[in-house]
Design a protein that fits this description.
Helix content of chain A: under 10%
Strand content of chain B: over 45%
Low-confidence stretches of chain B: none
Strand content of chain A: over 45%
Shape of chain B: globular
Structural class of chain A: mainly beta
Oligomer: heterodimer
Distance between the termini of chain B: 37 Å
Radius of gyration of chain A: 13 Å
Distance between the termini of chain A: 41 Å
Number of helices of chain B: 0
Mean pLDDT of chain A: 94
Chain lengths: 113, 113
């Protein structure tokens, strides 16, 4: 089955700086790669996703890049703000998520004031 | 707004008890999922369902069963709770075709003593 590795497990950045979280996946048939943000005491919430026919996608301060050849994808957050502090999860699926997602183990992002 | 509601946020049960975790979604989604979340392990898929009365095993189904008698409701059952099932349980739903947002509930914290 699919295996998703996520790094780093903890990331501390100064407010206003950029943050990058990286994931690799094992199944070359995976075609859907979402990113979720989980705040304390809440369920994960989708923040951005990318499909295998696209190399990059942006939404305001958040961007995701996908390298299918190397089987890795990354989340980029620019101009970080205190409300960006949370746990972020990457995930992958070969069915667009229809039979569930395989998640990475999460990155705890800390924004230092 | 899509709403996935998990009726019990915090439960404490005794070893050997039968435990029911209930989940309801209000968007007429075909797919529903149960995950468990543990520190350092991310989210792992227990069971999912494409439709009423249908169920499929995820990555860690041992010790669990599910029930989907109505489209909007998906129940997770621990037939005989054990201490290693102490965890956060997350329910999710999505439209049938995949490639679309998977919405999560707020989670149910289960402690088995």
């Amino acid at each position: 089955g699919e295996n998703v590795e996520q790094h780093p497990s903890t990331l501390s950045v100064q407010e206003g700086d950029s943050a990058v979280i990286k994931c690799t996946y094992s199944d070359s048939a995976s075609n859907y790669f979402p990113w979720y943000k989980q705040e304390l005491g809440k369920g994960p919430q989708l923040i951005i996703d990318i499909r295998s026919n696209v190399g990059e996608k942006k939404d305001q301060r958040i961007a995701v890049t996908l390298n299918k050849t190397a089987k890795h994808f990354s989340l980029h957050i620019t101009e970080t703000q205190p409300e960006d502090s949370a746990v972020y999860f990457c995930a992958a699926s070969r069915t667009g998520g229809a039979d569930g997602l395989t998640f990475g183990k999460g990155t705890h992002l800390i924004i230092q004031p | 707004d899509v709403k996935v509601t998990q009726s019990s946020r915090y439960l404490v049960k005794r070893t050997g008890e039968k435990v029911f975790l209930e989940c309801v979604q209000d968007m007429d989604h075909e797919n529903m999922f149960w995950y468990r979340q543990d520190p350092g392990l991310g989210l792992r898929l227990i069971y999912f369902s494409y439709d009423v009365k249908m169920k499929e095993k995820g990555d860690i189904p041992e010790g669990y069963s599910v029930s989907r008698e109505k489209k909007e409701r998906f129940s997770l059952i621990l037939e005989s709770a054990s201490t290693n099932q102490t965890s956060m349980y997350l329910c999710a739903s999505s439209p049938y075709n995949g490639g679309d947002t998977i919405y999560f509930g707020e989670g149910s914290w289960l402690t088995v003593v």
